[in-house]
Write a structure and sequence with these properties.
The chain is α/β, with parallel strands linked by helices. It has helices spanning 39-46, 96-99, 140-160, 177-186, 198-206, 220-226, 240-248, 271-276, 289-300, 316-325; strands at 2-5, 14-17, 27-37, 62-70, 82-86, 88-90, 110-111, 123-127, 132-133, 167-171, 190-195, 211-214, 230-235, 250-258, 280-283, 308-311, 331-335.
């Protein structure tokens, strides 16, 4: 089967023929239809983060496809079911994080396209309990971005506590940001979109943002404070500076939700202002299986819109360059059909 394989960090991915996986007990083999390209895949392929994937590996944690084979002991899924294979490939179910409803923070978790092979291939193997069922009315090209960008921002909005009277800043409008704007709107909040590209800000407006700030020509801190300060800021842009500005743009008792993972790991945190203004800072990592199911439910109900462009898997390296250059408005999705 065809797969995009990382052999060396920072080197181009190789499109090659590798062995098709077999389903072990509790697993399914999925014939991939679509597979979204997340910024995380670029970081994974470059070995940018402190914990690196084992080489060689197949990236991709937005794979969507049809169950082709079912392993021993699987009753939840059947052949022909359309499933999504998310970042959270498996969690132990027994640790404190899992038992308290935070399986996404399981220290024993397997991460699709990072610690286990992912969806940049004609087939992938998934744990049957962690593959998300995709409602029949959801287009596979939409289902792919929902599998990471969707669930991650849906969860981040939940974590932010955004409600009807809140001003929520979404920092970084792209694959994740365009969905964060919509989930914050669904939560009832007034949304401020922040980016450095005007076309992305225009997209955010069309998706419901009431205000936009271009951080390359305007001061996001002053602009946010002029609006009264943000009750919550969700930082998807992968730069420490974006997080620092968002923190400074919070109102009293406001909450900073960190999601984007920059190569440069450290932000400046002014203790004095944080204490005096009672600011809160929290990290948010993907979401649980329930969050993923709710993300699909909202889309099936017509309440979210996915902005995406299709690419062929053979274009994986050019597509990663496109993501890095910031020229893509939202999500690139490989169509493997
Ligand atoms: Zn992702
Ligand atoms: Zn666990």
């Amino acid at each position: 089967m065809r797969a995009a394989v990382v052999h060396e960090f920072g080197a181009p991915l190789a499109i090659e023929d590798i062995e098709k996986p077999e389903p072990g007990p509790g697993e399914v083999v999925v014939k991939i239809e679509t597979s979204g390209l997340c910024h995380t895949d670029v970081h994974a392929a470059c070995g940018d983060w402190p914990v690196k994937p084992g080489l060689p590996f197949v990236p991709g944690h937005e794979g969507v496809g049809l169950v082709e084979r079912v392993g021993a002991g699987v009753s939840r899924l059947s052949e022909g079911d359309r499933v999504a294979v998310p970042w959270l490939g498996w969690a132990c179910g027994a640790c404190e994080a899992c038992a308290s409803g935070w399986e996404s923070l399981c220290p024993h978790a397997k991460y699709t396209g990072y610690t286990v092979n992912g969806g940049f291939a004609d087939y992938t193997v998934a744990d049957a309990s962690f593959a998300g069922l995709v409602p029949g009315t959801v287009d596979p090209l939409d289902a792919a971005p929902l599998t990471c960008a969707g669930v991650t921002t849906y969860k981040a909005v939940k974590v932010s506590g955004a409600g009807p009277s809140d001003l929520v800043a979404v920092v970084g409008i792209g694959g994740l940001g365009h969905l964060a704007v919509q989930y914050a709107k669904i939560a009832g909040a007034t949304v401020v979109a922040i980016d450095v590209v005007d076309s992305k800000l225009e997209m955010a407006r069309q998706l419901g943002a009431a205000h936009t700030i271009n951080a390359s020509t305007q001061d996001p801190i002053a602009e946010l404070q002029a609006l009264g300060g943000a009750d919550a800021a969700i930082v998807l842009a992968a730069t420490p500076q974006a997080a620092e500005q968002a923190l400074a743009g919070l109102r009293r008792n406001g909450q900073l939700v960190l999601v984007g993972l920059p190569k440069d790991n450290t932000m400046k945190l002014p203790i004095f202002e944080t204490v005096l203004m009672g600011k809160k800072i929290v990290g948010s990592l993907v979401g649980t299986r329930v969050d993923l199911a709710e993300t699909f439910e909202l889309h099936a109900d017509g309440r979210t819109k996915i902005v995406r462009e299709s690419r062929q898997l053979e274009q994986v390296n050019e597509s990663m360059d496109e993501v890095l250059s910031g020229t893509v408005d939202a999500r690139l999705v490989f169509d493997l059909r």
